[in-house]
Amino acid sequence: MTFTAITSAGEKVGVIVVDMQGDFTTWKNGSLAANGTDQVFVEKVEKATRMLKEKGYPIFATQDWHPVEHVSFYPNHVGKEPFEAIQLKGRTQVLWPPHCVQETENAKILLNQNLFVTIVQKGKDKRYDSYSGFQDDGGNKTDMDRILKKNGIKALIVYGIATDYCVKATAIDAADAGYKVTVVEGLSKGVAPDTTAKAIEEMKAKGISVVKELD
To answer: What per-residue confidence (pLDDT) applies to 9?
Structure first.
């Protein structure tokens, strides 16, 4: 299955756990919680991540880490409502409720920090949204690719929140960067069913393997 099939190809496999933060979960009454992200789901993700670490897979994480004046926050746009889409300098920007503000309680990653080799923060530039763990909407790169290469990673298992935004963007950018990517649907939750279904098709079209669970 998933990780055994990848490792049989002789490639070093890493894991990226995407944005497992309080503001994206119903468990912590997050301001931008995806459906189904209760305590049971978070514990399931932690258990799976711990299992992968015990098997020797290096685990990496992404963390949304926004300044209060971030461009994606609807209160920073006069007269706008949450979830509106506006045009900014030729790109579409969805306006979100303020979330994962730097140094706030619900910006913390909910899994045990000792599971991770490193945590890559994203969305720190107030001018650009940053769904992907590899780069923001302005094309500014994070340290993710450099860190993965430093660790000899050739293939990736990706999961977390949200399937239709940050998981998708991270997985697609990883595939575009030359990594062999597997997304675990059962360890991910999306914002909405229609955009989640579309995201899964987009990922598959990029050659990304999407599996239900880790066997």
So the answer is: 60
CATH (domain of 30): 3.40.50.850
Task: Kindly name the residue from 166, 168, 173, 189 that is annotated as catalytic.
Answer: 166
Decide if 1 is inside a domain: no
Q: State yes or no: is 122 an active-site residue.
A: yes
Number of structural domains (the chain) is 1
Report yes or no on 5 lying in a domain: no
Name the residue range of residue 16's domain. Answer: 12-211
DSSP, res 109: B
Q: What is the pLDDT of residue 11?
A: 83
Closest to 28 (Cα-Cα) out of 173, 161, 130, 153: 161
Q: Is residue 200 part of a domain?
A: yes
Q: Flag residues of the chain having pLDDT under 50.
A: 1-2, 5, 8
Of the listed 19, 64, 136, 145, which one is catalytic?
A: 19
Is 166 one of the catalytic residues? yes
DSSP string for 134-148: SB-TT--B-SHHHHH
Single out the catalytic residue among 28, 64, 100, 122. 122
What is residue 5's predicted lDDT score, i.e. its pLDDT? 45
pTM of the prediction? Answer: 0.95
